[in-house]
Automatic annotation (TrEMBL), chain A:
Annotated compartments: Cytoplasm
Pfam families from the UniProt entry: ACP
Keyword Phosphoprotein among record annotations: yes
Main location as per UniProt: cytoplasm
Protein name: Malonate decarboxylase acyl carrier protein
NCBIfam families hit by this protein: malonate_delta, PRK01220.1
InterPro entries: Mal_deCO2ase/Cit_lyase_ACP (IPR023439), Malonate_deCO2ase_dsu (IPR009662)
Residues that bear O-(phosphoribosyl dephospho-coenzyme A)serine: 26
Keywords: Cytoplasm, Phosphoprotein
Source organism superkingdom: Bacteria
Gene Ontology terms: cellular component: cytoplasm
Post-translational modification: Covalently binds the prosthetic group of malonate decarboxylase.
Automatic annotation (TrEMBL), chain B:
Pfam families membership: Carboxyl_trans (PF01039)
Keyword Lyase: yes
PROSITE patterns: COA_CT_NTER (PS50980)
Record keyword Transferase present: yes
Species of the source: Silvibacterium bohemicum
Protein name (database record): Malonate decarboxylase beta subunit
NCBIfam families for this protein: malonate_beta, PRK07189.1
An example Gene Ontology molecular-function term: acetyl-CoA carboxylase activity
Length: 98, 289
């Protein structure tokens, strides 16, 4: 198991809602997305698969190139692929912005 | 062209099995009466999984939702089959026990509160061993405390099924609702094969598994009460019926003598035929009340 953290200080838009999507099942993950108490956005990942820090970084760089909300994201991951990760993140954004 | 539309019903139905545990539980309640207790943002996770290199889940795979069903007070407790096989750990077990105890407290105070248990579970979470076993014991004693006051209704929809310690909980509930896809049994097929050999039970024989553990056979034998299609609307309607029926006159698990006599009367000299067993067991004074 590995814990990974990222910070995106540029993401400053105020968010008021929160979202919980996904399940920590094989090849899937859960996302908790909520307004951040600190400046900018923060990501905290707990994954059962070690050694994919660069892949996570690439996914979140891409996600925060479009999304600018000041959110705290917590992820519990059971081996989701980068594609599934992006889809789960987009699903969470859909929940807070609907 | 004016071709008649031949779209079968199952195309338009809303599958219950395809919903996750939270959506399943929510789908049972009257509109905008439900609220989740100890939800994912409360972050009550298992403290034991991370120590063993397993990612935890923020609700520990147990979802508790309170609200009204058919206008009556109810609490739904759902196990998420996709997370660690819906297993019962220290936290998920404590959530279920506490929810049942609160329902008992409310019921005793004059507000009968039915409990609906959505069980997709293999039983105790092996990573939490004794704590899981203790949790099952507590759940059983809490369910027994509630059932004289308000119905305890179990739903096994599939596809995980309900096995191990939690099958005991299903066994002592007031009503059990199953789909044809669901399975219910104390020992799962793999466990029986592993312990007693492939001659006893071939766990790769799906027809055999469903002929014994499947919803149709369980309801046919009177060991479960209602067989429903995999349809969220129909399952919610079946739950409403059970809530309105209230506490049964006699619970299945109270009919010890009846089941003892039935088991004693089984002829084990030859392989028991499932259809015959169903005919013999499903009499009106049997498990079906």
């Amino acid at each position: 198991m590995e814990k990974i953290e990222f910070n995106y200080p540029e993401a400053k838009r105020l968010i008021t809602k929160r979202a919980h999507v996904g399940v920590v099942g094989s090849g899937d993950m859960e996302v908790l997305l909520e307004p951040n108490r600190e400046e900018g956005a923060q990501v905290f990942i707990t994954t059962s698969v070690n050694g994919f820090g660069d892949a996570w970084k690439a996914v979140f760089d891409r996600f925060f190139s479009k999304f600018d909300g000041a959110v705290r994201i917590d992820i519990n991951d059971a081996g989701a692929t980068p594609g599934s990760v992006l889809l789960r993140l987009e699903q969470a954004v859909e929940v807070i912005e609907q | 062209m004016n071709a008649p539309t031949l779209i079968p019903d199952f195309v338009n139905r809303k599958s219950f099995i395809e919903l996750d545990a939270r959506a399943r539980a929510q789908s049972l309640f009257d509109e905008s009466t439900s609220k989740e207790l100890v939800g994912p943002f409360d972050r009550i996770e298992s403290p034991w999984l991370a120590k063993q290199g397993i990612a935890p889940q923020s609700d520990d795979g147990c979802i508790v939702i309170k609200g009204k069903i058919g206008g009556l007070s109810a609490v739904a407790i759902a196990f998420e089959g996709a997370f660690q096989g819906g297993s019962v750990g220290e936290v998920s077990g404590a959530k279920m026990t506490a929810a049942l105890d609160l329902a008992t407290e409310d019921s005793e105070a004059g507000k009968p509160t039915a409990a609906i248990l959505l069980l997709e579970t293999g039983g105790v979470r092996l990573q939490e061993a004794n704590l899981g076993l203790a949790a099952v014991a507590e759940i059983i004693s809490s369910a027994l405390a509630l059932r004289p006051h308000a119905p305890v209704i179990t739903i096994v929809a599939g596809t995980v099924g309900c096995f191990g310690g939690m099958s005991l909980v299903a066994g002592l509930s007031s009503y059990t609702i199953m789909t044809r896809e669901a399975r219910l049994g104390l020992n799962g097929p793999e466990v029986i094969e592993q312990e007693s050999g492939i001659d006893e039970f071939d766990a790769s024989d799906r027809a055999l598994i469903w002929a014994i553990h499947g919803g149709e056979q369980r309801v046919g034998m009177g060991l479960a009460d209602v067989l429903v299609e995999d349809d969220a609307g129909k399952i919610a309607a079946a739950v409403r019926d059970c809530v309105h029926k209230g506490v049964p006159e006699k619970h299945r698990s109270e009919q010890v003598e009846l089941y003892r006599a039935r088991i004693a009367a089984l002829d084990t000299s030859s392989q028991i035929d499932l259809a015959t067993l169903r005919r013999q067991w499903a009499d009106p004074q049997g498990g079906v009340r």
